[in-house]
Amino acid sequence: MGTLKPVPDTKWKAVEIYDPETKTWQELERNWESAQVVFGMDGRVLKGKEHIQRILRTGVGEDLRVAHLRKFAEREAPDAR
Amino acid sequence: MSHKSKKAAPEAPSEESVTTKSAESQEQPTTPPEGRSSMRKNKQVVWHYTYNHIVDILQSGVLLPPMMTPHFNERNSSILELGESIKKDKGFQADSKLLLFSQRADWEPASYRAARLGGRIIPVHRLDDYELYGWRVYRVGVSRDLLHPWMRLKRLCGMPPAMARALEQVARDLGSNPYDWWAR
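ok -> structure tokens follow
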């Protein structure tokens, strides 16, 4: 069934953090750089196909921020269930 | 990461009001979201709640269904408690595909997590309780027009009806309303 669809940050409207002291949601300022191309655990491209297609089409490479989720899996797992 | 602006969060419902809402939800469900105008649908932001995974999410810049996340196999509570055989279960498979969002503006009670203390698993329901366990709560908002309402998606993902009913009942008992849920 077709529900395994990622939501890339180009579709995000906001990222917020809860402040328990003020009981308010506060928007995070966008001062981090996300990957432009993301490869999933199974090697599929989850984000940034257009970058790869452009490189293939033009034959010109470019510096891209690339993330492999397999590398993320090698990190210590977060403690929350 | 730094804070840019503050938004007042509506007061979380008291236990009394949760009970009232739960009862209302069972007897007289909220109007299904499909019935609302497309203009309103397109404007509304819905929220995906997350905790310790925020670094992975921000670095990759992508929200993923649970099954596709890097630590799914080692951190999924059903796999940890019931073993690998649970992966063959139809309900488990359906649940693992769903990337859930809520249209509630304050907090989605059904997004709660659990803490392990001395081998015991303790559910953490109230938003303010997360600080006790050193967890910060984050949420990512997206436009609702990207998503399907829960009432439709539970069928699309192949969730057994009995499991869906059980999930909805548990959620209502927590003060949640499944008609607030959207998924991808």
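Residues 15-27 of chain B form the longest helix (13 residues).
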